[in-house]
TrEMBL record:
The gene is dnaG. Its cofactor is Zn(2+). It comes from Amphritea pacifica. This is DNA primase. A zinc finger (CHC2-type) spans 40-64. Gene3D superfamilies: 3.40.1360.10, DNA primase, catalytic core, N-terminal domain, DNAb Helicase, Chain A, DnaG, RNA polymerase domain, helical bundle, Zinc finger, CHC2-type domain. The lineage of its organism: Bacteria, Pseudomonadati, Pseudomonadota, Gammaproteobacteria, Oceanospirillales. Residues 465-492 are annotated as: Disordered. It catalyses: ssDNA + n NTP = ssDNA/pppN(pN)n-1 hybrid + (n-1) diphosphate. Contains an N-terminal zinc-binding domain, a central core domain that contains the primase activity, and a C-terminal DnaB-binding domain. Residues 467-481 have a biased composition (Basic and acidic residues).
Length: 640
């Protein structure tokens, strides 16, 4: 893009991305205390002197002095110009680059600054109302009854939106332009039939939501009584994306020198109440269940995450949903736990009853992910019968197969063997046979039946009173029953359970130079299998762009409508297809391509034979194909 990139856009971009994600995709890192270290990519060294500080969002090499933020790393490592590096970061963050230079850029830059300034003004106004409004006693008494002190109310910037339809409107809307900005920031609602504005938040305790830099980006409001909706969140805006943000994360990082764990709770008051009693590492999601983005962000900062749920049926269902989200994200060295509170209690009320030490003891004794996983599955299976153990293994193996390769995944597979009395090889064979014979006959077993039954008591978006605003967007289901599942590979890394096209794609992703040996795969472009079409596009791209990295490939394909949908499929294959030993990768690739060509020969021969009348050209084509088929089988004969 030509022209100056607005500084506000760059600041917002750096706030959205994580330097650890950027560096770790290119450099092998190991956690050392609260930092991450590895061999410097900018000079040759034998012992690590390169470090990444995730808390302060910078990298530095003590050997050569290289250092900077995410943007600087991309420029140095990928040898990109400044605009190219900004553009790549924008693609990774899922935001659009500014469309044009000059006045439009300045207008957008000023608009974003105005939005942050208005949100800060709104936060200060709400805090002032908590101190000075004639009805402040109602709000103050509510907070006191919840055990909250003025010190912690101030720490979290808690305020009060008084009764009335236009308090904030009168205070901040100086002109029509400001009204529009407030609406875009989610603070006002425009009643279209009369073209009038009114406050979104009325007669509520107000909780400002801050980003990693401490800027107010949105609000959550809680009613003082039992009215519905109990909790109301800001809608999605230019500054607020609920699937990424966590309430209390800024405060947890600010008031803890060294974070070792984070606890995910359901409500704002739970976060504040726990902090007041000395547990200052709790966060809450904002109108959604915990997403993979939330977890990836958390596990880059701390080695342990604890989910805290009510002990009732709704809490159990929410926990299963969290487990489903966590399985594909968790890696070796990271830990997820599940804590269930006594029925009728929430973290805020329980910590007030028990105190900090007793509550932390509950956290320390919470169920590890593996224990909760097997306990949940065993509840629905009769482990004393052969049928029950078979059903248990058929449920467990596909879910474990979603996990990242590592020791934890291997130990969980071994645990299934221990519980069922079958070896891993036997379990995989049984599971594969089950999937093959019943794929179209019966639905696949699943212990996540339907959507989670979250309670109607808050923490999820509701329509504001007397308004047309709705939040119909449902959380993504990337790792749910509908997702594509791959069979687990047997020990030794064999790819026998994967089709030749996906195996060939995996080899080319890990060893892209082998694309030169593949020749022209045009025959696959018109195939019926999506993976074969993917293989054709990947091979063509690698041949046309020698030396390209998977990261650059992903960025390039994002720009082409016919290639963009294939990136997700590439990701699945890259993570779940076993990596072939490099020493025989070329031979395996050649075998895969031969099998694919034979398959296409068989299909074309069958198609020609099925026609009632063949032209002379078709007969000649058929004879040629049959000769090729015979030659292929003769070449394979010595292998039998």
């Amino acid at each position: 893009m030509a022209g100056r990139i607005p500084q506000s856009f760059i600041d917002d971009l750096l706030a959205r991305v994580n330097v650890l994600d950027i560096v770790e995709a290119r450099v092998k890192l190991k956690r050392t205390g609260k930092n991450y270290s590895g061999l410097c990519p900018f000079h040759k060294e034998k012992s690590p002197s390169f470090t990444v500080n995730n808390e302060k969002q910078f990298y530095y090499c003590f050997g050569c002095g290289a250092g900077g933020n995410s943007l600087g790393f991309l420029m140095e490592h990928d040898r990109l110009s400044f605009p190219e590096a900004v553009e790549e970061l924008a693609k990774l963050a899922g935001v659009e680059m500014p469309k044009a230079e000059g006045p439009v850029d300045h207008q957008r830059e000023q608009r974003i600054k105005d939005t942050y300034a208005l949100l800060q003004e709104a936060s200060e106004y709400y805090q002032q109302q908590l101190r000075e409004h004639p009805n402040k006693e109602i709000a103050v008494n509510y907070l006191k009854n919840r055990g909250l002190t003025g010190q912690f109310a101030a720490r979290f910037g808690i305020g009060y939106a008084p009764p009335g339809w236009d308090n904030l409107l009168k205070k901040l809307a100086r002109d029509e332009e400001t009204k529009l900005r407030l609406e875009q920031a989610g603070m006002l609602i425009n009643k279209e039939d009369s073209d009038r504005y009114y406050d979104r938040f009325r007669e509520r305790i107000m909780f400002p939501i801050r980003d990693m830099r401490g800027r107010v980006i949105a609000f959550g409001g809680r009613v003082l009584g039992d009215e519905k909706p109990k909790y109301l969140n800001s809608p999605e805006t230019d500054t607020f994306h609920k699937s990424r943000e966590l309430y209390g994360l800024y405060e947890a990082r600010k008031y803890n020198q060294s974070l070792e764990r984070l606890v995910i709770v359901e409500g704002y008051m739970d976060v504040v109440g726990l902090a007041q009693y000395g547990i200052g590492y709790a966060v809450a999601t904002l109108g959604t269940a915990t997403t993979a983005q939330h977890l990836e962000r958390i596990l880059k900062m701390v080695p342990e995450v604890i989910f805290c749920f009510d002990g009732d049926a709704a809490g159990r269902k929410a926990a299963k949903r969290a487990l489903d989200t966590t399985m594909p994200v968790i890696t070796d060295g990271k830990q997820a736990r599940f804590l269930f509170l006594p029925e009728g209690e929430d973290p805020d009320s329980l910590v007030r009853q028990e105190g900090c030490d007793a509550f932390e003891q509950r956290l320390n004794e919470s169920l590890p992910l593996s224990d909760f996983f097997f306990k949940t599955l065993e509840e629905g299976a009769d482990m004393s019968s052969l049928d029950g153990r078979a059903r248990f293994s058929n449920q467990a193996l596909p879910l474990i197969d979603q996990m990242q390769p590592g020791i934890l995944k291997q130990m969980m597979q071994e645990k299934i063997s221990e519980l069922t009395g079958l070896s891993l090889e036997q379990l995989i064979s049984v599971n594969n046979l089950q999937e093959t014979t019943h794929a179209h006959a019966t639905p696949e077993p699943d212990y996540y039946q339907g959507e989670p039954d979250y309670p109607d008591d808050g923490y999820f978006d509701y329509p504001p009173e007397q308004s047309d605003f709705r939040s119909d967007k449902k959380p993504g289901k990337e790792f749910t029953k509908g997702s594509k599942k791959f069979r687990p590979a047997p020990p030794g890394g064999s790819a026998v359970h994967f089709n030749p096209a996906s195996t060939a794609v995996s080899i080319l992703l890990h060893l892209p130079t082998l694309a030169d040996h593949c020749g022209d795969l045009e025959i696959l472009s018109a195939g019926q299998e999506e993976t074969e079409k993917l293989l054709y596009q990947l091979n063509r791209y690698l041949q046309e762009n020698p030396g390209v990295t998977p990261g650059i490939l992903a960025v390039d394909w994002q720009e082409h409508d016919h290639l963009k949908p294939l990136i997700r499929q590439l990701n699945e294959i890259a993570h779940q297809t076993p990596i072939i030993d490099a020493s025989n990768a070329q031979q395996v690739l050649s075998d895969c391509l031969n099998r694919l060509q034979e398959r296409h020969l068989d299909r074309e021969i069958l198609q020609l034979k099925s026609q009632p009348h063949l032209s002379s050209e078709d007969k000649q084509r058929l004879n040629t194909l049959i000769m090729k088929q015979a030659g292929s089988r003769l070449r394979k004969a010595p292998e039998k």
